[in-house]
Predict the structure.
Amino acid sequence: MKFGVVVFPGTWSDRDCGWVVDQVLGAELTYLWHRDTDLKGCDCVILPGGFAYGDYLRTGAIARFAPVMEQIGEFADRGGLVWGICNGFQVLCEAGLLPGALIRNASLEFRCEWTNLLVERTDLPFTSQCAERDVIRVPIAHGEGSYFADPATLSRLEQRGQVVFRYCGSDGRVVPGANPNGSLHNIAGIVNARGNVLGMMPHPERCSEAELGGTDGLKLFRSVADNALKVLVS
Amino acid sequence: MDERRLREVALTPDEYRVIVEQLKRAPNEVELGMLGVLWSEHCSYKSSKALLRRLPSTGPAVLQGPGENAGAVSIGEGWAVVFKIESHNHPSAIEPYQGAATGVGGIIRDVIAMGARPIALLDSLRFGPLPESGRHFEGVVAGIGGYGNCMGIPTVGGEIYFEDCYANNPLVNAMCVGLVRTDQLMRARAEGVGNSILLVGADTGRDGIHGASFASVELDENSSERRPAVQVGNPFLEKCLLEACMDLSHTDAVVAIQDLGAAGLTSAVAECAGRVDGAGARIDVGRVPRRERGMTPYDVMLSESQERMLVVVQRGREREVESIFHAWDLTSAVIGEVTDDGQLTVFDSRDQVARLPVRLLTDGAPMRRLVGVAPEPPLDLVVDALPPLADAGATLLRLLASPNLSSRRGVFRRYDHMVGDATVVPPGGDAAMLRVKGTRLGLAMTADCNARYCHLDPHLGAQLAVAEAARNIIATGARPIAVTDCLNLANPDRPEVYWELEETVAGLSYACRAMELPIVSGNVSLYNDSNGESAIYPTPVVGMVGVIDDYAKRVGAGFRADGDFVLLIANT
């Protein structure tokens, strides 16, 4: 199982994602430079958090034109696992690999804090280690994480069950008070129809060791690793 | 010499006379500007240097004390912690967002210049009361977040106070902590005749010209006209600069790295050369990449454009180093070379536009002999004169609601305090703690000062600031190892302010010696008053770092479980 972590100029969660993959999970890791034109045989590509190209113009708007993105688009079309975290989610939306957009938080302020997420899909390669309707604790750190989509797109997402994570209370109830950024339908993460491209605003790589305050994020990394093993065996 | 012109470059007629005497000629315009910025209080410490020598700065673990871009202390297992605190008060008063943002950017570059990777930021802030000072408060908090969050360096601690005396003179002190392998610790010394001097990072523009001089005068009603003296930050560029500088560790071609901060290129080149006996430098402003047309040599030498670094490279290996910067899409240019003539010589292509002895620039400013006079009668707080406590419950609620005591969550949740996967004690408690990845070591850090105490008794107040910082470190289970300090005071030309400075330094020195804590870096910010009045309280902010051998043994703040004992240690 080989994880590839994409590095754009301005990316900073690359090192944290790399740390978890390499030091905590013990999986194979390679970094993919924004100018790379091949994915070095990765089984899962992570687009990590940060401010790619300074997020100037609009979050993710410049990054989608990076050479590596063309390969990632083709990789996703072939069914490869693509996982966008925070800025990576924003890039995936800009690149059209996921629907909708991330706009400024309703508070108009950056927010770095712990959130609770209701896991609504456990049949995905990213969440298979989560329990049915699991509530996981994962921190956010963003200024533009309010998920937005037009009504038609939103209802299509809901009907097809493409909402993977929703901000909720610690009891799992999806209530407005648990929404940290004004996302429509409390959406924290979505998957494409095929189920191989995941975008999420919260940072699982920041909660994969007990000393950092929680280990729920590791469930997602383990799911991906585990799933890849299954694919190899079958 | 025209008095008005002298005022523009913040030199006194006496200082001008010394310059002419030393040079045995009148300086030209470029030279006058260069001397003006380097002889400013901000760069020369001419009012405080003699006092600062009294501070303890050595110890068995100290690898680098004051005089470099930042201090460095060994923490074991081959690691050194590098840290420094610096003020950006005057710019933040005029343009709160950019002033605070570039303050953060500047202190990060100081740590990078030591070869260290910055791992944490802290900010000590002072404002006037809310809501009147809301513009300062909101702008500064947004600026710190805007820069630090984009850099991917967690902001893990600091303090905020609201007090009348800071209404016109808010204080923004930023501290950066970094880690480096002890054998990769860099020093900004321009060694080796013929070695090349590279300017890397942002292009040079007209922003921030005279910024250092501006920071060395009182603010007045014309201060907003000085907005061009406030720089504009580009954290994305600095993030690329950070990564490129980290990649420099892959080559041994680099001799020195120096941040371009106050007084820009003039200060960076002079300081680098000044650290080596007899060294000089020859640079060509014609080779400096520029952001705008029509810039004069004067503009280039004095520009305080952000996100720039000076790199001294072994002669003949420039390409090796430049390719690292190019990989990050950063501009780099060889702008000159190290010499052994002790002169800083500036060319504009073929024409020599300035030639000054390095020592005159770095150490030539005549030290000012100021007189301190204690206030008479001394300020005293008569505790017995306070009204008796009528309703303890209501008073407690009022205290909890006070902006000076209330929860800081509303601020620190606007800062990314988790990036780096190292924050094992988050903000909100006493000190923050970060683990040193790959080891069991934990680094505790804090920045503290209660300026009300300092106002009443600067000597005791400074001691209490050290004690508070130490208690915060100890409360996490760590052992304090070293200090960085940022002394914020008003206009030292006034005898009662200079007395405060003397007392503050004496108090800091006393407490640090008593606790065997070396002060390895720091900064002095004077002239924090407006129109000759509304002087700030003496505010010696103490940044402290501590170490715990195994971060698993760390202690967080807050009660854990029902039935646990609560102990109060020491007398009340």
